[in-house]
Design a protein that fits this description.
17 helices; hydrolase activity; TIM Barrel; lyase
Length: about 325
């Protein structure tokens, strides 16, 4: 029997954040029929979709915020999300990740503290960069320190490349193909993996050994390359030798989710180099359907890759422990 599922890369747009993301991106959302409506819905339709996918508990977060939203938009958006959960017909089935003004590290730390302490959020989900700027510099230590002090994870979520980054994905094919290659078709997954490596190389995990980072989509290409990158990192020597090797950081600081990757092939790779305690089910709703996620989980059950206890760990127990919630 399929265990209850807890999903934690599940998206929503408050009025404040939706109005801040720009007309171009709002029009992009309209390209998928019904998507914008699903992203803004927090009524019975969301709960019905959860039921169709056997999802007992959902961690809700704002979707992409290209360029980084303002402090005011984040505050208002987080307040609106908290209100939506409280007013829901099933508030005990939801928790939330905060949206943060990632272009401003100090303001991000302050909003994380407010969202966790005042609103009861269980961490933050943030775009992977702020208009091309990553978060490995010392100016972001204030954010990592706050996450450690609150003992909550930060979910590094893919986002669209900046204008400068997007140029690398254009070629002798139509522009929409290049846009897809820079986004969910390839680029943004490897970009999140690169960001994790930049945090490691910059010593962020040395300075903050209790930092908890979540990445989606079966580990954003890192599990497939983990042995190779781990070997290469030992050659950095005096340029960037770290107190703990990359494999140890992977085991102690990184969690991954299954979001939007509906094949057993990548999971087989993940299970060879990642502790099952660090793997968590997710869907990526509404960009992916809860029903498709449930179909994948049932294939996983039938595969024999995991014991019954391990299936429960991936389904909900690992997330319960990390986020201190209860299905």
């Amino acid at each position: 029997m399929t265990p209850p599922l807890l999903a934690l890369e599940e998206h929503f747009y408050s009025n404040a954040i939706f109005n801040s993301i720009g007309e171009t991106f709002r029009q992009t959302l309209q390209g998928v029929p019904g998507l914008a409506h699903q992203l803004r819905d927090f009524g019975d339709a969301r709960i019905d979709a959860m039921d169709q996918g056997n999802i007992s508990f959902q961690i809700v977060s704002h979707a992409f915020t290209p360029g980084g939203p303002s402090v005011a938009a984040c505050q208002t958006g987080n307040d609106e999300l908290a209100s939506k959960i409280a007013q829901s017909s099933s508030p005990n089935r939801f928790a939330a990740f905060a949206v943060l003004p990632v272009s401003d590290p100090a303001a991000s730390a302050a909003e994380l503290e407010r969202s966790v302490s005042a609103l009861g959020f269980v961490g933050a989900l943030i775009d992977n960069h702020a208009d091309g700027k990553y978060f490995d510099g010392p100016d972001y230590d204030v954010l990592w320190a706050q996450a450690c002090a609150l003992d909550v994870p930060i979910y590094l979520h893919p986002t669209w490349p900046s204008a400068r980054m997007a140029e690398n994905f254009m070629g002798s094919y139509p522009v929409p193909v290049g846009i897809s290659l820079g986004g969910p078709g390839w680029g943004w997954h490897g970009d999140v993996g690169l960001h994790v490596l930049k945090l490691f190389a910059a010593g962020v995990f040395d300075r903050f050994p209790r930092l908890k980072i979540i990445i989606g989509h079966m580990g954003e290409t890192l599990p497939f390359m983990l042995e190779r990158v781990s070997d290469m990192s030992t050659r950095w020597g005096g340029w960037g030798a770290r107190e703990r090797p990359l494999r140890q950081v992977w085991d102690e600081n990184i969690w991954i989710t299954t979001s939007g990757s509906w094949s057993l092939a990548p999971l087989k790779c993940v299970l060879h180099n990642t502790k099952v305690e660090r793997i968590m089910y997710s869907v990526d709703y509404p960009f992916e359907s809860n029903e498709r996620g449930l179909q994948w989980f049932r294939e996983l059950e039938d595969s024999g890759l995991l014991t019954e206890e391990q299936l429960e760990m991936v389904a909900y127990r690992n997330a319960e422990k990390l986020l201190q919630v209860k299905v």
